[in-house]
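User: New here, please read:
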Amino acid sequence: MALRVVRLGTPRAVDEGLRIGTVRRPPRGVPKTAFAEQDWYDCWYPNLAPSAEAMALGQAAQASGTEKDWGRFRRKYLAEMSLPDPSRSLDLLAALSHGANLSVGCYCEDASRCHRSLLRELLAQRGANLA
């Protein structure tokens, strides 16, 4: 059993399990009934997505590519994830990873400049069984 961190919209891995979209908004132009069949996600969970303010910082970091901008986004997002509700969600996903296959992800092409890389770190800190 393991938890994968994936790019939404990409083909699923064998035994990937439930795919959870940790994004602020659903994919544009895709009917809800097609989210799973088009490999976007099975369940939308924006609770672990960056806030609108953090997303703006993340987009600036992706555009500039500078460590300074990435650091601003990183600090903001990690602060958001340390709040009680997101923190409990991360604990739950980490615990579930020991008994089920599941995945979390977002749309960004470059995982190294995306909140999903930070999700991976946070889940690892909580003892998640990561693929």
